[in-house]
Write a structure and sequence with these properties.
With 274 residues, the protein is α/β, with parallel strands linked by helices. The chain is built from eleven helices and nine strands. It is globular and about 60 Å long.
């Protein structure tokens, strides 16, 4: 059985964490499988939007306990995830900021929109992975926890940067210091996700949302908008508006802009090429 799977239909790549018997906790082998599979979705010309989910009862329960045992016994000597910014062979050639080329933050490296369909436990590095998605849709069973301090470690892989930008400083501090459970309704109220669906309808809802983006949005535009959103987190307003003006003028020369205008006038679906 593959630890991570990819299926493609209607412009959507469905990436599934596939260790349901372990609540999709990351093992050593799963890291490599996730890198290869997610990079395949990014590279595929048939994929315009990516949906990320977990098989079985959970999204991702964090790191596999056997892996944590090995790291603890070796005092970190067996921890072999490359430091952000260092080359990862499976991700070679991806046009992305090097600090995002780590398994748990690969959604940030994707120029394509990434929709997280999250149910059950979303804990530890699972929370990092979810926070790296562009949009999160929850099943009613979704539960988040960031119990890093309770495991004697720190907020991993940029989560201390990501989480305050999603839920605010107070809520992020609460989650990271206490490690407490945050259920689906509180997560939506806090801004960690956009909406809740019944568990049995979650994946269909996420795929329908992704198909709508794939069918109606210019892939060139979605890639640039993703960059704008993340650049804007560290830009002043003047820089953001100046950059947006330059990008807007460039977009007027794109094939997708011309196709958008023509398809609107002709009352038909657009045929964007990106």
């Amino acid at each position: 059985m593959n630890d991570v799977t990819l299926s493609i239909a209607d412009g959507v790549g469905l990436v599934t964490l596939n260790r349901p018997e372990k609540l999709n906790a990351f093992s050593d082998a799963m890291h490599d499988a996730f890198d290869r599979t997610f990079a395949e979705a990014i590279r595929s010309p048939d994929v315009r939007v990516i949906v990320l989910t977990g098989a079985g009862r959970a999204f991702c329960a964090g790191a596999d306990l056997a892996r944590l045992d090995h790291i603890a016994d070796s005092r970190g000597a067996t921890f072999d995830i490359p430091r952000p910014g260092n080359p990862v062979p499976a991700l070679a050639g991806l046009d992305a900021p090097p600090e995002t080329l780590v398994s748990y933050t690969l959604p940030l490296a994707s120029p394509k929109p990434v929709i997280g369909a999250i149910h059950g436990a979303c804990v530890g590095i699972g929370l990092v992975l979810a926070a790296s998605c562009d949009v999160r849709i929850l099943g009613r069973s979704a539960m988040f926890a960031a119990a890093f301090a309770q495991r004697g470690i720190v907020a991993e892989f940029g989560l201390a940067w990501l989480l305050p930008r999603l839920v605010g400083l107070d809520m992020a501090s609460d989650m990271l210091l206490s490690g407490r459970r945050v259920e689906a309704e509180e997560a939506v109220r806090a801004g960690l996700a956009s909406r809740i669906e019944p568990d049995e309808a979650l994946l269909d809802a996420a795929l329908a949302y992704a198909r709508e983006i794939a069918a109606t949005a210019s892939p060139r535009s979605t890639a640039i908008i993703k960059r704008q959103i993340h650049a804007g987190l560290s830009q002043g307003f003047a820089d953001a508006t100046a950059s947006a003006w330059d990008l807007l003028v460039e977009s007027f020369h794109s094939e997708d802009f011309g196709e958008a205008v023509r398809s609107f006038r002709e009352r038909r679906d657009p045929g964007f090429t990106g």
